[in-house]
C-alpha cells in the first residue's frame, strides 16, 4: 500500500509539471535604418605622374657618323641649342660636286642661249628654215632645265650640310639618349628625346569601371606629394583604348595653375575626382551582406528578414552608395551575418 501512494505522488508531480507553460525564445533584436533619398558625393583618388604635354623624338635628316654629343639625360636646353653633330666631310664633298654641276650647266645654258639668239636672227633674214630654229630652241630649253635641276641639287646639298647639326626645337629637358659619339646613324633614326617644359600635365590611369564618370573638361584637384602644393587641373585627353595589360585608360590632366619652379618632370601627384549623386541611397558599410560577387542587404518586412540584391555605385570611409532599393525600405545595418532568410526579428524591445 505504501508503494502505491508513492507512485501516485510521483505521477502527480509529473502531471503538475506538464501543465506549466514552456518559455519560447524571443526573436533577436536588429538595428535597422529607413532608406531615404539624399544628395551625396563620392571622392575617387588616383596616383599620377608629372609629364610633358609635348614629347619630341629628335633625329637627323641625313645619315652619318656622330662626332659630338653636347647634352646628357636631364640636361635643360633652349630652342636652337646644338645637341649633336655629324661628321660633315661627306656632305661637304657632295656640296662641292653639286656646285660644280651648277657651273657646268650654267656654261651649257649660256652656249645654248647664244646659239638660239644667233639662229633667231638668221631665221628673221630667211637664211634658215623654221625647223632649224626649233632645234636650237629645244637645245636651249633642255640646257635651262638641266641648269635648274643642278641648282636645286646644290641647294639640297647646302641644306644637308646644315642638317649635320641637330638643334633643340623648343625649350625643354632631354629625357632619353639613344645614340653615342662614334655611332653611325641613318636619316630619321631617333637619337634624343626632348620633353618640352613650357606646358606640363599629370597622367593617371583610370580603371575601366570608373572611366565612364570622367569627361574632357572636368575639373579635378591635384596634390603634389613632394611639395604639398594643391592645384586645380582640367581633364584634357582620355585614351580611347584601355591598356592591354592593366585594363586601365590613360587620362591626361592639364595644369593651368602650375607652381613656378617647383614641379619637376616625373614627380608623383594625387588626383582627386569628386562625383555628385542626386537622389542617392547611402547605407553604412556594415549593412552589406557579401556572398561571392553579389552585394545584398537584409530587408525587414512584417517582422521577417529577406535578402535583396543591390548594386554598389560608390564607397567612402564608412558608407556605401547603392542602387536597387526604394525610399521607405527598412534595412538591417548591424549583425547581417547572423541572420537567415525568413527569420523573425524585432526592431526594438
For the biggest β-sheet, the strand order reads 2-11-14-13-12-15
CATH class wording of the largest domain = Mainly Beta
Radius of gyration: 44 Å
What would you call the quaternary organization?
single chain
Instruction: Give the helices and strands as they follow along the chain.
Output: HEEEEEEHHEEEEEEEEEEEEEE
Mean pLDDT: 85
The geometry reads as: elongated
Q: How many distinct domains?
A: 4
How many extended strands? 20
* Main β sheet profile: 6 strands, antiparallel, barrel
Structural category = alpha+beta
CATH superfamily of the largest domain: Efflux pump adaptor protein, beta barrel domain
Low-confidence stretches: 1-9, 11-15
Q: What percentage of amino acids are in beta strands?
A: 35-45%
CATH architecture of the largest domain: Beta Barrel
As for the CATH topology of the largest domain, it is Elongation Factor Tu (Ef-tu), domain 3
